Amino acid sequence: MAKKSEHPVTTASAVAEKTSIETKAAPKAAAPVKAKPAGTKHGFKLNEFIVYPAHGVGQIIGVETQEVAGFSLELFVVSFIKDKMILKVPTSKVANVGMRKLAEGNVVDKALSTLSGRARIKRTMWSRRAQEYEAKINSGDLVTIAEVVRDLYRSDTQPEQSYSERQLYEAALDRMAREVAAVRKLIDSEALKLIESFLQKGPRRGQKAEADAADVDEPEAEEEDVDRAA
Length: 230
Hints:
Elements: H1 12-16, E1 21-23, E2 34-35, E3 49-52, E4 56-68, E5 71-80, E6 85-90, H2 94-97, E7 100-101, H3 105-115, E8 119-122, H4 126-137, H5 142-152, H6 163-184, H7 188-199, H8 207-215, E9 223-226
Antiparallel strand pairs: 1-6, 2-4, 3-4, 3-7, 4-5, 5-6, 8-9
């Protein structure tokens, strides 16, 4: 259900500050909605797949103009089919919220090669690292997300992840797989297999190194390479 504004809006610029309207189902129009003809607008096209930092890959399914508090507001209508969610983003705010086109092929190649590198673990408490991982996942940057996948990956011969580690790993993996699938024209399962193949090429992380990284609390500690040698 669409979120309703709880505060009065007095200017058009104030209306535009509402950067997105999110709903789990097709929202009911609060005012007459005018559909815009297909074409390029602010660098994006109708039916184009895009990346929204907080949600990952979505598809622009329409451009609407809604009357909000007496002002006209133009919106991209973005569908996230897997999440069964519709997001409405003011066309004037796409740069501010970080909405972007799918990554170029060379960026995807770089992200995949990142998976085969050595994990870089900060020697700080897990809670602090978890916040940094979450920020990286929501950055919308494919290579940065690949770094999270690489750092949190565990092979069958390594200790199991904690619940919070697993959640972050799966979130990063899902974000990466969806974009790789969209760029490479793959289905999700094929993208996951591709990512897994690159992860398996990397050095394995030793249990002692993992334990040291998890237990030490050094606020100004630097990142270090961790061999994933079993």
